[in-house]
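Q: Given only this backbone (478 positions), what sequence would you predict?
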């Protein structure tokens, strides 16, 4: 079993809890574990993270240290403070390919400096369904050509900084109504437009592509993560991708609640995946179970040993990437400011009463320690934040302060729209700040601001635009 166990281990990427590597992680890495995926709970500071990754890589030089760092909402490096970089939707609105590449290069330089060698970004999904619950502002937009331009730029920026990129989620998660964290989404037909950004990523020599846990009925009833037609025939054959294919997290309910994690792992490797992301909450017991399931599948003839060896080799090669970059956080501020859209003439002259409408947090981003309303209020001294997760029966009195309503994806949530309409009908000078997609504009808002992102830098840009003293005081927009 020894050689087979080593090959199987090489394909597994678990997470672990906390800022210190537990004994089991170091032991498995010494035995040949492919690497780890880091999450927000693994990050306290750049110094701590640098020490953690150095410890992980002391077991082997070729350990994969991966992280979900998309910028915008999905940040691990800056989870305690909010991201200094706008997300993809803002960059798509600006549509400056050179800026997207600069931002990715800066992000890559920050990742490389703390020892991360694989970034599970960029999102290459074309967000063609406005009701999509999991992609949304994580996408560069709804136009495939635009998304492709910026996916290619993002890949080049990251990889020129020495960090392997991972375009996700193949063959496209942008036209779904379900979140694959919670259910198994189904689309009827393969969308050729959805493939364009992945073609652009491959043309940019992307080192990795992540699968989507979605069923594409025109290619069968098997989720893409476990479909040979999608991973081998389409991705390898038609698109010519030769790099590492990594699964989305196998703990997601689209897999764990259907075939199960171990069976999903075997089927994914057999279909053409090379690395298995286990997810946020699966640790040593799951590593052993998945490893043993792969070994058993080879020994029983279900999984050719040559396929497992090929997968292990591709996983081992993904971190073999040179490059160097420099941190340029000003590019993030520039992107957030240029993405901002402001309609109306009402501005802030002093402290604001901020009413923040908070829908349920997406599974990919999670709930950060601070809310967007906090970042906005911090830039407008003396402001007060009231936060609601459903429409309340009444709202606080403004007491002469300007009312600012912060909403997210109001087009998707009737309770948000109702709350905004109640507030704008009661008070004529309300400022509404939409931090998601701006598909619904409140008809009675005196000023409407679309940030196209919920990162700290997006909210600071909005505050800067609305509060005249921010720019003159200096330092408020970092």
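A: Predicted residues:
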């Amino acid at each position: 079993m020894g050689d087979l166990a080593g090959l199987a281990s090489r394909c597994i990427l678990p997470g672990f809890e906390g800022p210190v590597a537990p004994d089991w992680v170091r032991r498995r890495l010494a035995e040949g574990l492919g690497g780890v995926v880091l999450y927000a709970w693994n990050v306290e500071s750049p110094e701590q993270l640098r020490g953690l990754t150095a410890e992980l890589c002391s077991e082997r030089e070729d350990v994969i240290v991966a992280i979900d760092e998309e910028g915008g909402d999905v940040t691990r490096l800056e989870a305690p403070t909010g991201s200094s970089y706008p997300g993809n939707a803002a960059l798509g609105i600006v549509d400056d390919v050179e800026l997207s590449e600069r931002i990715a290069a800066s992000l890559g330089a920050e990742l490389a400096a703390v020892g991360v060698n694989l970034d599970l970004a960029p999102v290459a999904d074309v967000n063609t369904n406005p009701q999509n619950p999991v992609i949304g502002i994580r996408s560069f937009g709804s136009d495939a050509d635009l998304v492709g331009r910026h996916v290619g730029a993002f890949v080049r920026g990251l990889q020129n900084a020495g960090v392997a990129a991972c375009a996700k989620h193949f063959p496209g998660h942008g036209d779904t109504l379900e979140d694959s964290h919670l259910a198994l989404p189904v689309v009827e037909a393969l969308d050729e437009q959805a493939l364009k950004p992945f073609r652009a990523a491959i043309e940019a020599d992307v080192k990795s592509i992540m699968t989507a846990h979605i069923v594409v009925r025109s290619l069968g009833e098997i989720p893409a993560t476990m479909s040979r037609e999608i991973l081998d025939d389409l991705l390898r054959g038609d698109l010519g991708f030769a790099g590492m294919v990594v699964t989305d997290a196998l703990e997601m309910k689209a897999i764990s609640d259907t075939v199960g994690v171990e069976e999903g792992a075997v089927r994914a490797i057999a279909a053409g995946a090379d690395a298995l992301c286990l997810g946020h909450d699966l640790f040593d017991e799951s590593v052993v179970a998945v490893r043993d399931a792969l070994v058993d599948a080879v020994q029983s003839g279900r999984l050719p040993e040559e396929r497992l060896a090929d997968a292990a080799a591709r996983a081992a090669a993904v971190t073999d990437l040179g490059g160097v970059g420099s941190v340029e956080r000003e590019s993030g501020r520039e992107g957030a400011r240029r993405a901002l859209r402001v309609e109306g003439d009402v501005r802030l002259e002093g402290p604001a009463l901020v009413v923040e409408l908070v829908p349920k947090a997406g599974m990919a981003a999670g709930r950060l320690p601070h809310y967007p309303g906090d970042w906005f209020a911090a830039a407008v001294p003396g402001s007060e934040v009231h936060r609601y997760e459903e429409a309340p029966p009444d709202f606080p009195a403004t007491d002469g302060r300007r009312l600012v309503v912060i909403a997210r994806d109001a087009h998707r949530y009737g309770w948000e729209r109702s709350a905004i309409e109640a507030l704008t009908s009661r008070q004529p000078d309300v400022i509404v700040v939409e931090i998601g997609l701006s598909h619904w504009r409140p008809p009675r808002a005196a000023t409407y601001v679309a940030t196209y992102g919920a990162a700290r830098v997006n909210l600071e840009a909005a505050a800067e635009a609305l509060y005249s003293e921010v720019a003159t005081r200096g330092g408020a927009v970092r």
